[in-house]
Amino acid sequence: MANQVLFLQSLYLLFSIFSLPFLPLVMSSCNDPCQTLDDCEGQLICINGQCNDDPDLGTHICGGSPGTSSPSTDDCQPSGSLECNGQSYPTYTCSPQVTSSTSAVLTKNDFSEGGDGGGPSKCDDKYHENSDPIIALSTGWYNGGSLCGKMIRITAQNGMSVLAKVVDECDSMHGCDQEHAGQRPCDNNIVDGSNAVWDALGLDINIGRVDVTWSMA
What we know:
Keywords: Secreted, Signal. This protein is an alpha+beta fold.
């Protein structure tokens, strides 16, 4: 009889253990430093250089409570304005938060010498062939050159995607001068791509501006 009681107690203990709710294992800690989306394990993602909750998954590991909305991209407000050819344009030091699928606007840039891209690329102080899949990022995303040489994946609404290398900044603070080929400051959500990027995405480069998403490759 005693053996039967002990056996039943053991079964009850095992049942209790396996009935506990499953908790996801998070290998990285909140606010740990990171450089790419893959640096943060579990359900965390690299946002602005730190491991944080993934807004696409709706996780709340790093604070907040269920139902708390993630920071809006509207949190990036203009830092000032610049007069250019009789018009006033907003300037930005920031860009929307980087996620696993960051919304952006693809524009066209000429990275060759004498092109509409102005001076040489900031990452390496060189000009580049437009047949290479390369891009410039708005000032906030460029982040002082921290993404120079990194590959990002750009995805168009037609489902096509391309890997492109970051070689330059699309300046969101300055413009309308010789260095910027007379062009206005970039918006804060620009991926400025070469001809090769547009071609790989199957897009008409004459359109000039197309909504896309991007992520670290």
